[in-house]
Amino acid sequence: MNYFQKMKGSGQSPPKVGVVEILWSWIGSFLGIAAVAITHYKMLDETGLMMIIGSFGASAVLIYGAVRSPLAQPRNLLGGHILSAIIGVTAFQWLGGTPWLAAAVAVSTSIAVMHLTKTLHPPGGATALIAVIGGQNVHNLGYLYVLMPAALGAIVMLIVALIVNNIPKSRKYPEYWY
Fold first, then answer.
1. Helix 55-65 vs helix 152-164: crossing angle, to nearest 10
2. Nearest to 56 by CA among 165, 174, 161, 163
């Protein structure tokens, strides 16, 4: 197939999602993000939301909106965020003087490691990137960033996903753990 012909695509758009599925996705994502925010308020302070990193928004789309996706499974959610946070912090500590290089190394290495460990979770790439570009508050955390917000936030969202995604008969989560 010609290089440019590949860019046309070959399939059709995915089927439309029903209203009930949309409602459960909304409920799950609302409760998941709210639970992470409340955890932040109770553990840290009531003035910021440092535990809600941007990549959790993307994780919410997967674990509440695409529950059957291999990328949404617990192994991927937890492994993707934790490994990528470690890689992001390390990239910043070693290469932070050259932010463009630290950012590129953090994201690309995270993707490679997630592939190698069968934990591919696209928001993990953002978790690695946030460790590099997240500003002084994030940089001051060092490897604590791995535990909080990355690991703790992912665990809280997973607990909500396990509860909410199994309420309707039409949903089952997870498809697998390992």
1. 20
2. 161
